[in-house]
Amino acid sequence: xxxxxxxxxxxxxxxxxxxxxxxxxxxxxxxxxxxxxxxxxxxxxxxxxxxxxxxxxxxxxxxxxxxxxxxxxxxxxxxxxxxxxxxxxxxxxxxxxx
Length: 98
Description:
- With 98 residues, the protein is an all-alpha fold.
- 58% of the residues lie in helices and 0% in strands.
- The chain contains 5 helices and no strands.
- The protein has helices at 10-17, 25-40, 45-55, 70-80, 85-95.
- Helix 3 (45-55) packs across helix 4 (70-80).
- The radius of gyration is 14 Å and the shape is globular.
- The N and C termini lie far apart (29 Å).
């Protein structure tokens, strides 16, 4: 999974994306905080992101692209990786806007 919430360190994604579009600095900082949060809990950000999209009823569909055939297996694994309910509770507590 690519992009700022695809699992890679957002600073590295920013360096690769240089010149191909701009994202507000505050959004990059938020992505970095989320990446650090996941790393502290030994969770892959891309896995969390994909499962968030499939869990949230406000999101009607999730379309993911593939840069190579290995991504199919990676995305299936991410979709079925168990994430404890406590993690979802912490995520809401730490990141949902008031």
